[in-house]
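Repro case for the chain-ordering regression, as requested:
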Amino acid sequence: MVLLDGKKTSADIRKEIALEVEELKKNNKKAPHLVAIIVGNNGASITYVNAKVKACKEVGFESTLIELPKEISEQELINKINTLNNDKFIDGFIVQLPLPEHINEENIIMAINPDKDVDGFHPTNIGKMTLNLPTFIPATPFGILELLERYKIETSGKNVIVIGRSNIVGTPISILLGQKRNVGNATVTLTHSRTVDLPKITKQADIIIVALGVPNFLKADMVKEGVVIVDVGITRVEDTSKKNRFKLIGDVDFKEVSQKASYITPVPGGVGPMTIAMLLKNTLLACKRK
Ligand code: GUN
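-- result from build under test --
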């Protein structure tokens, strides 16, 4: 079994990006500037956004964190987004999800200028992605493609099963892997809560991508020998032995499934760090496009 080491791969990518930023600066060009907006005080979201901002600094980007109170109205948030849309010193920005219940996520995503939507969530960018046109690919699916590519895992002609149909992961990765592209040309099945007899389907899979948010969901008796496993789950579970009092649990029962897998991502240290690296990649792209 080979570990798909997202931590190391992400560090390699960040080094490559840092070199490009140095090159830009040498040529008297401005460093890319990413802004992250966070609304409210969801612990996990704060951790993720801080990690994104820190990663920006490490590769030589400029970054700004905008923290807004959870009571902010939808219109006030849209006004903030419009300011960023019109600020020529900002290459890209993200609004960390989830948002408080009184704010409609769709309205917020729709307000972002697609040229600055480095999360790739705007319908214009999802549409371009679906048509295999140049765009910002959402960071988590983009990270999965990059991880498979760097570990030279063949996808062409393979049976891929995606578990979970979220807009951020399951749906886009199922579209991407079916496309005629470098890491693609797979036969993809998108499964979800209404799927009948999931184990029968997952046992046929050469590659399984699990993005459900249900800890230890995928068990060894659901997979075949030699399967490639990509675990996108990162559920926080209380663990009083840890300094920060929680640990992260993936959607795959790693102990069991790693006995049968040929390749598998760990949690943490698999897909998570790749997401951050690909957000940086999208921000660099946004900057270069201008
Ligand atoms: N929440 C969980 N993943 C993401 C992400 O990739 N981007 C944003 N903006 N919010 C998220």
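Ordering looks correct now. The chain has a mean pLDDT of 98.
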